[in-house]
Structure formats: C-alpha cells, structure tokens
UniProtKB/TrEMBL annotation:
Binding site for ATP: 29-35
GMPS ATP-PPase domain segment(s): 2-200
Reactions the enzyme catalyzes: XMP + L-glutamine + ATP + H2O = GMP + L-glutamate + AMP + diphosphate + 2 H(+)
Name of this protein: GMP synthase [glutamine-hydrolyzing]
Pathway the protein contributes to: Purine metabolism; GMP biosynthesis; GMP from XMP (L-Gln route): step 1/1
Included range, full protein: 202 to 527 of 527
Function: Catalyzes the synthesis of GMP from XMP.
EC annotation from Swiss-Prot or TrEMBL: 6.3.5.2
Subunit composition and interactions: Homodimer.
Entry keyword Zinc: no
GO molecular function ontology, one term from the record: GMP synthase (glutamine-hydrolyzing) activity
Length: 326
C-alpha cells in the first residue's frame, strides 16, 4: 500500500544508491517540485548536495526569503544564492513582446546558472569531489507528456542539460518522476518542506516578467508585487486558496485611465485579477469569487498601491483566453 512515509523513504534510498559518493547540484526555483526534489536529495546525501537559487528579481513578495531563509532552515541544504536582479532587468530593458521577454529571461537564467554551476564544480573538485549529477524536479505528467522528447518546462535529455556548455556535463537525478503533484506535496510535507512552499500554486518560470503587459522595470515590479501580495492575503484570509488553481495578477503598465482619489484626479494603471479553476492548466474557467472578497481586494489595492486606480476582473475561460496575459 502507498504510504507517504514509505514512498519518501524509498525515494531517499534510491537517490542515495544512484549518487554514491559523488557531488550533486540542484537549481532551486522556489516552486514545489524543485524544492521537494532538493529536500529528498538532501535527506539522501546531505552535504554532497549544493543548491543554487538564481534570484531573477521577478518573484512575488516574500518568495525569495522563503527559499533563502525558511527552506534552508527547514532542510539544512547548502544553498548558493545568486542575486541577479539587475542583470535580468538589464536584459529585459526595452522589451515588450511576451516571447522576447521569455527568451531574454531564459537566456539570462542559463547564463547565471552556468556561472554558478562552474563555481560549485570548481569548489567541489578542489575538495576532491567531482560534481556528477544535476537534480531536476521532473514529475510523472512531465515524463508522459514529453514522450521522452524535449519539454518546455523541464530539461529532459541525459548528458545534454538545457543549453549548458559541453564541458559542464551532468547526469540527471529525477527523484519525482514517478509522482503526481499531490503526491509530491505529500512527500514534501512528510520530509519537512515548509508549508508555504509545499502549498504554492503554479507560478510561471518567467515570474512577474510576463505579468507586466509592457516593459518590465523595477518600479513596475514594485507596483505589481504590492498588488499581488494584497490579492494573496485576501484569498488566504477568505480560505479560497484550495478552491482556485492560481490567480495571476496583471499590471497593464501601458494603459492609463482617469480616476478620482481624495480631492484629486488621478491618471493611473489598471490591475487585472485572473482567478481560474483548472485541473491541469490545459483548460480553465474563471473562478466565481465571492463579491465581498473582490470588493475587499479592490478597495485595498486602490487605497494601498498609489499608482493603481482601477481593478478589473478577467471573466474569460481558457480557451479562448490563456491563463496568463502574456
Ligand atoms: P497559459 O497562460 O498558457 O498557462 O494558459 C498555462 C500554465 O502554464 C504557466 N505558464 C508558464 N510556466 N513558463 C512556465 O514555467 C512560462 O513561460 C509559462 N507561461 C505560462 C501558467 O502560469 C499556467 O499555470
């Protein structure tokens, strides 16, 4: 019979056998999958694992801290944090096309991760422990969907890891490849991954970079982060987190509309709420959130986020609309 404890133990044991006394590296994104994968490997081989967290500056409020502080405290992983915010902002300067933004973020990510990986490899080698493996949080649905071929979200082929240069070659350790998402969460809880990380809803790799319609700037990120935090706080307070699949919050940075706040006329930006229900993100329906929750969110955002004077609700299903706006 399937028990979470039994599965976690078995996965840890298998990883331990696979790795032996080699050194391993793992890229942490702050998402559920990479966090649980890293925690499992940590349980299996302890300080033979080094995690790398590339902070691209496109995460939501508090999420970098959850990785840097809470995850490290809970699991004891050796974590190397690279603050690459400025580098990503520079790479995004002037870009407005969604695919160009994705490409820029992806390219920068590889560049920063590669540099960090080289440093980890160098340090481990000088201690006499060559780095042989890279941990990936690939899940069972990723394995099935990709048919073993190239996937968008994960890097699958052995010895040819996602655009890393030829002299950086790792074999993959994919401890979650037999599990579904709910099983990953159960295993994560079992081995002590912090609840805010285990319970996290899907969040795109390019992060807030594709939730600002228009150019991404530090100032715009700040506006979006503030609005997004309010939405998350109110959804949690209303106990709606498990009722919705995810709720992108989008800043229409190039749109302005007239408003009136206090005694003055404002000319601010709209924030779009995109709460959806879904089974697998392939199709989705807009969530019928209670009016009082929507009202609270709207009041708080327009009161607390100075540059925003309008909150609108996206009532489009997928198809025809995608979940994200970009
Ligand atoms: P769409 O917008 O295509 O989103 O309906 C479907 C799911 O995928 C997420 N998403 C992404 N995830 N990189 C990611 O890792 C991306 O570029 C990306 N674009 C969308 C989205 O949040 C939703 O869960």
């Amino acid at each position: 019979t399937w028990t979470t404890e039994g599965v976690a133990e078995e996965l840890v044991e298998r990883v331990r056998e696979q790795i032996g006394d080699a050194h391993v590296i793992c890229g942490l994104s702050g998402g559920v999958d990479s966090s649980v994968a890293a925690a499992l490997v940590q349980k299996a081989v302890g300080d033979q694992l080094t995690c790398v967290f590339v902070d691209h500056g496109l995460l939501r409020a508090g999420e970098a801290e959850q990785v840097e502080r809470d995850f490290v405290e809970a699991t004891g992983v050796d974590l190397k944090v690279v603050d690459a915010t400025k580098q990503f902002l520079d790479a995004l300067a002037g870009l407005t096309d969604p695919e160009e933004k994705r490409k820029a973020i992806g390219r920068e990510f590889i560049r920063v991760f590669e540099q960090a990986a080289r440093e980890v490899v160098g340090e481990a080698e000088s201690d006499g422990h060559p780095v042989k493996f890279l941990v990936q949080g690939t899940l069972y649905p990723d394995v099935v969907e990709s048919g073993g071929g190239e996937g968008a979200a994960n890097i699958k082929s052995h010895h040819n890891v996602g655009g890393l240069p030829d002299d950086l070659q790792f074999s993959l350790i994919e401890p979650l490849r037999t599990l579904f998402k709910d099983e990953v969460r159960a295993v994560g809880r079992e081995i002590g991954v912090p609840e805010p990380i285990v319970a996290r809803q899907p969040f795109p790799g390019p992060g807030l970079g594709i939730r600002i319609v228009g150019e991404v700037t530090a100032e715009r990120l700040e506006i979006l982060r503030a609005a997004d935090l309010i939405v998350r706080e109110e959804l949690t307070a209303a106990e709606l987190d498990s009722a919705i699949w995810q709720c992108p919050v989008v800043l229409l940075a190039d749109v302005r509309s007239v408003g009136v706040q206090g005694d003055g006329r404002t000319y601010g930006h709209p924030i779009v709420l995109r709460p959806v229900s879904s089974e697998d993100a392939m199709t989705a329906d807009w969530s019928r959130l209670p009016y009082d929750v929507l009202a609270k969110i709207s009041t708080r955002i327009t009161n607390e986020v100075a540059e925003v004077n309008r909150v609108v609700l996206d009532i489009t299903s997928k198809p025809p609309g995608t979940i994200e706006w970009e």
